[in-house]
Amino acid sequence: MSTREPRWLRWTLIVVALAFLIVNLALPLAAVFAGAFAKGLAAYRTAIVEHDAVAAMKLTLTVAAIAVPLNIVFGVAASWAVAKFDFPGKSILISLIDLPLSVSPVVSGLIYVLLFGLQGWGGEWLRDHDIKLIFAVPGIVLATMFVTFPFVARELIPLMLEQGRTDEEAARSLGASGWQTFARVTLPNIRWGLLYGVLLCNARAMGEFGAVSVVSGHIRGLTNTLPLHIEILYNEYNYVAAFAVASLLAGLALVTLVAKSALEWRFGDQIAGGGH
Amino acid sequence: MGFTVFYLCVVVLIPLSAIFIKTAGLGFDQFIAVALSRRALLAYRLSFGAAAVAAAINSVFGLLVAWVLVRYDFAGKRIVSALVDLPFALPTAVAGIALTALYAPTGWIGGLLPVKVAFEPLGVVVALTFIGLPFVVRTVEPVLADLGHDVEEAAASLGAGRRQTFTRVILPAVAPALVTGFALAFARGVGEYGSVIFIAGNLPYRSEIAPLLIVQQLEQYNYAGATAIAATMLTASFAVLLAINLLQAWDRRRMAAL
User: Fold this and answer.
1) ipTM of this complex prediction, to 2 decimal places
2) Exposed (0-12), middle (13-18) or buried (19+): which is A56, by Cβ within 10 Å?
3) Interface of A with B in 24-63 (CB under 8 A)
4) Which DSSP state fits B11?
5) Per-residue model confidence (pLDDT) at position B142
6) Torsion angle of C-alpha atoms A171, A174, A179, A183, degrees rounded to 10
7) Is the pTM of this model over 0.90?
8) Do B16 and A77 touch (CB under 8 A)?
9) For residues A32 and A244, is the Cβ–Cβ distance under 8 A?
10) CA A43 – CA A110 distance, rounded (Å)
11) What's the N-to-C CA distance of chain B in angstroms?
């Protein structure tokens, strides 16, 4: 009678699981760096400092710098509303927040083309007022916002639900204003969960491909983000440059994973679900 | 509160409704001609089929990985656990070119395999398996961790073997989480674009996914056609998600009745 597996079975399971993870996850990651340095360090450097690559980097950083803060504000507001107040239609609101996760990125891009493109509803008005959204930077920002929209709220809602309302009620009864309650009580309570959500949101914002590809128009040096730049290089059979640029994003992914694990490890109890 | 609803409307709801309103503006015949053309039907079949196969593979291996991470101790466990989230953090275009390099006939893995994977429908499955794994692992893991040892001890003390305990006690307990993980991986796979287009080869009628078809319609400035395909895909995805939600609700009722 035992509730443990025999030793051989345990090790077989571990080995099979690890083998799957190595083939499925570690090898692709290794392939990125192998491809990037295939022609040596000099070729890698040339690809990174090349003019269009630098422009793409700047654009990617700009887009993330706009989209991520906006989604932080929204994420905090949405989870605050869901967790601390009761209102009809709350569960519908929660499912709507998750909606972008189950919509194809291509469709996410398409909807902005339909809305603001020349054929679309707002297209002619925008043209008459000389505002360019689609095939320009604002369109890329909008599409990125749509796609990364659920990440912060998804982390915060379960966390804030779990923490309940007692802290806030105590603060209010001691005479704190709504804003003071938020800044002094709620925010410190959720800071690590918030940081966790921001990490994921940022990783996706910088790496988004499908949605951005539809709205960007692929103008080199102007509306090309890093992922789009990778695609162009790859389709031009410029593999070393494609992998070199890809290695930058892979590096970002690794930093994100390390920061995320560190957060889970140190502040697991202050992230949703009491740690993973 | 008001701000939340406003932001949600502006960023999500109005844009999404645009798809359906635009589709409704198409003539019926025109809609059928584009959305149900042979090429489109084959693309849906590939997108939904490959997503289902990949989600099934991930359900098996995701359960295994979650089990190993929750139950066993081994060196480097924390690194392995962090690695599981790689597909969430790695941009899809990067994953796409990396997988293509690996599975191309000259690649590290492609060179060893007897069958052609890259630039074939099989390549789509490989890409979607990569993308979907963390959905299963991260949904099953907390349930497995919460599952007390007491039920297993009870099963064992009543004479159940390890295999019986697993199929009769553990598996039913994690089944709803497993189905959810499957659904999330499937939904993501159906719409996935970035990681697939590099490895798929994109041959019409053979290895062309539905999202790519939308992009191609757009590149030909056929907005109506793109919208028709998008609406069909959205409807199908929502139907699948709804079916799985109902299945789960039914499962919860069944478990509660026991």
Assistant:
1) 0.84
2) buried
3) 24-29, 31-32, 35
4) I
5) 87
6) -50
7) no
8) no
9) no
10) 37
11) 40
